[in-house]
Design a protein that fits this description.
With about 80 residues, the chain is an alpha+beta fold. The protein is built from 2 helices and 5 strands, in the order βαβββαβ. The chain has a 5-stranded mixed sheet with strand order 4-1-3-2-5. A hairpin with a 3-residue loop joins strand 2 and strand 3. It starts with 7 loop residues before the first strand and ends in a 9-residue tail after the last strand.
């Protein structure tokens, strides 16, 4: 997995297409935490995964196998 800067995530281009993602993605964990990141496409990422900065995600309580909702942001939000 490539090194990913904080505030950014990598998503498969097909996933970006069917989620109608522009330049941002919102990740919601347990209906409590809403995080918005800049999103970039990367063909290497499996369609059912999102890759981000490991340290940053852990600081927000997200680790491998964390179940989260990923979508286009519902309203304007500040990027993490």
């Amino acid at each position: 997995m490539p090194s990913i800067p904080p505030g950014q995530v990598r998503v498969n281009p097909k996933t970006m297409e069917y989620l109608h993602l522009g330049d941002k993605i919102e990740i919601v964990v347990a209906k409590k935490k809403r995080l918005v990141f800049k999103v970039f496409s990367l063909e290497e990422v499996p369609e059912n995964e999102i890759w981000g900065n490991e340290e940053e995600l852990r600081s927000h309580g997200i680790a491998d196998y964390t179940i989260a909702t990923c979508r286009a942001p519902l309203k304007s939000s500040e990027v993490v």
